């Protein structure tokens, strides 16, 4: 397996070199060697970066993502935490769908005032219920 200079890895992955150094500082990735002062990474680091990006997109913190990598750098994905995050995303999707529907209704409602529209007031009550419930903390 070949080594990739930090600049090459940055170009291939789309992750800035400064972010790669930060991920290294956090222990998310590790260089395999150095060529002068430049870090060199294994080609498998590209897969790790893709997993980090996926984890970030799913809403996991970098600390949580770090905990999902074993000592060998391979993912050890905790299924219960993934289920919890998927459930949290589902709740977020429902809230966003209600918000979308509210905005569309507000934009198209023929009532003289939106506060006079029964549907709009119903959507406000639903939105309020959804925002009052706290999100579970993922560890």
From TrEMBL:
Q: Which UniProt keywords apply?
A: DNA-binding
Q: Which SUPFAM superfamilies match?
A: Putative DNA-binding domain
Q: Where is the HTH merR-type domain?
A: 3-71
Name the SMART domains for this protein: HTH_MERR
Molecular function, one GO term: DNA-binding transcription factor activity
Origin superkingdom: Bacteria
Stored InterPro entries? DNA-bd_dom_put_sf (IPR009061), MerR-type_HTH_dom (IPR000551), MerR_fam (IPR047057)
Keyword match DNA-binding: yes
Classification via PANTHER family: MERR FAMILY REGULATORY PROTEIN, REDOX-CYCLING DRUG-SENSING TRANSCRIPTIONAL ACTIVATOR SOXR
Q: Under what name is this protein listed?
A: Redox-sensitive transcriptional activator SoxR
Q: Per UniProt, what is the name of the gene that codes for the protein in this document?
A: soxR
């Amino acid at each position: 397996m070949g080594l990739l200079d930090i600049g090459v890895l940055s170009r291939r992955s789309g992750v800035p070199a400064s972010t790669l150094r930060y991920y290294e500082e956090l222990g998310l990735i590790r260089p395999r060697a150095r060529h002068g002062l430049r870090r060199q990474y294994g080609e498998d680091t590209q897969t790790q970066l893709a997993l980090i990006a996926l984890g970030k997109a799913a809403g996991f913190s970098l600390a949580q993502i770090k905990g999902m990598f074993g000592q060998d750098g391979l993912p050890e994905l905790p299924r219960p935490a993934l289920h919890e995050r998927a459930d949290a995303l589902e709740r977020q999707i429902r809230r966003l769908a209600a918000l979308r529907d509210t905005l569309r209704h507000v934009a198209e409602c023929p009532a003289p005032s939106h506060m006079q529209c029964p549907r709009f007031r119903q959507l406000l009550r639903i939105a309020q219920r959804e925002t009052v419930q706290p999100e579970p903390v993922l560890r």
